[in-house]
Amino acid sequence: MNDVKWLLAGAGDIATRRVGPALVAAKNSRLVAVCDLSRERAAVLAGKLNVKAVFTDYTQALAESGADAVYIATPQGVHIEMSLKALQVGKHLLCEKPLGLNGTECLRLLKAARASDRTTSCSNYRRLSEQVKLTAAMLERREIGKLMGGWAVYSTPFYNPGKAPVSQARGMSRIKELGFYLIDIAQNFFGMPSGVMAQASVLNPAVMNDVEDIATVVLRFPGGELFTIIFNCTSPGTRHELELFGSEGRIYWPEWPPHGNGPVVRISRSGMEKIDAHTDENYHLPMIEDYVDAVLSGRPPVCTLESAVKTEMITDAIFRSMASGKLEPVVWEA
Predict the structure, then answer these.
(1) Does 57 share its domain with 109?
(2) 253 - beta bridge partners?
(3) Predicted confidence band at 1 (pLDDT cuts at 50, 70, 90)?
(4) CATH (domain of 171)
């Protein structure tokens, strides 16, 4: 195989803005078909990307598109079944986040992926951002000493371009949709948390229905390290920051994809240093290129399916804590 031929399943907002263009622009990557329940929507996106094959039936698309790999960019409620179907017919798989509605159904997919020889992944393009890569290298060199804790803030107005009905049953939680990235990055830097504590409120039920619009999550790790995440969808403007605490210094991101492309700031006893870390403006492109190389070379991709399932299991514990008001354990069996 000299390149990877793609079927893009879903032609909505993220597929149009970033995924489709990235599949076309990536090295050794060819987008050969677009599938969506709306033929008009699929045809419009296919036309923009110079793709000839358009499908409205996913099973037919899998059988007739000639694709080697499927990128699933549909609503999260159907991610698992569509992913399982792709693996059943021998396709490589890259699924949008969040991976599924809960950890239990995601474990079904992980089991199928482990039984398959296909390359599987879930989209966390931020792991391929220059900010994350630079920070990981700094932590590896222990430039801020022992990692002790940190925090992140994700404050942005509610975004629902497809005007889908808002409900937790459809997986539209802010913690699942926005928090996936932050939880995944936290477990990448710190490892799996042993427990979580969370509180959330629905302050605008006319818009949010039963979906939280403000929340605070504390992840506790086996060594006592703490990482706090604050979510806010109640205010105008965007704030998207992260800071890590070390025994010898701190690392701070004042802004990072997709709400900025700022530097990594290292703070130590000797002062503060801003280090440039600029990610490609199509934030999905580095992830797609990494995945394509993984398929062609036979190595695992940076964004592994297992990491996404771990994030879903952490999220399940967050929801249990929101309901119980207690510290809840994170259940994970590799």
Answers:
(1) yes
(2) 242
(3) confident
(4) 3.30.360.10
What backbone phi and psi angles, to 5 degrees, belong to 170?
-90, 5
Pair 76, 146 in one domain: no
Domain of residue 195, residue span: 126-281+313-329
What is the three-state SS of the chain? CCCEEEEEECCCHHHHHHHHHHHHHCCCEEEEEEECCCHHHHHHHHHHCCCCEEECCHHHHHHHCCCCEEEECCCHHHHHHHHHHHHHCCCEEEECCCCCCCHHHHHHHHHHHHCCCCCEEECCHHHHCHHHHHHHHHHHCCCCCCEEEEEEEEECCCCCCCCCCCCHHHCCCHHHHCHHHHHHHHHHHHCCCCEEEEEEECCCHHHHCCCCCEEEEEEECCCCCEEEEEEECCCCCCEEEEEEEECCEEEEECCCCCCCCCCEEEEECCEEEEECCCCCCCCCHHHHHHHHHHHHHCCCCCCEHHHHHHHHHHHHHHHHHHHHCCCEECCCCC
CA dihedral 200, 206, 210, 214 (to 10 degrees): -20
154: tokens are 């994700």
For residue range 233-259, what is the model confidence (pLDDT) as tens digits? 999 999 999 999 999 999 999 999 999
Say if residue 98 is preceded by a cis peptide, omega within 30 of 0: yes
Q: How many domains does the chain contain in total? A: 2
Please, are residues 3 and 29 in contact by the beta-carbon 8 Å criterion? yes
Residue 52, classified by CB atoms within 10 Å of its CB into exposed (0-12), middle (13-18) or buried (19+), is exposed
| Residue 77 burial class via C-beta count within 10 angstroms: exposed 0-12, middle 13-18, buried 19 and up | middle
Q: Are residues 72 and 118 in the same domain?
A: yes
If asked whether residues 140 and 188 sit together in one domain, one would say yes
Residue 334 lies in a domain: no
Task: Give per-residue pLDDT as tens, 41-61.
Answer: 999 999 999 999 999 999 999
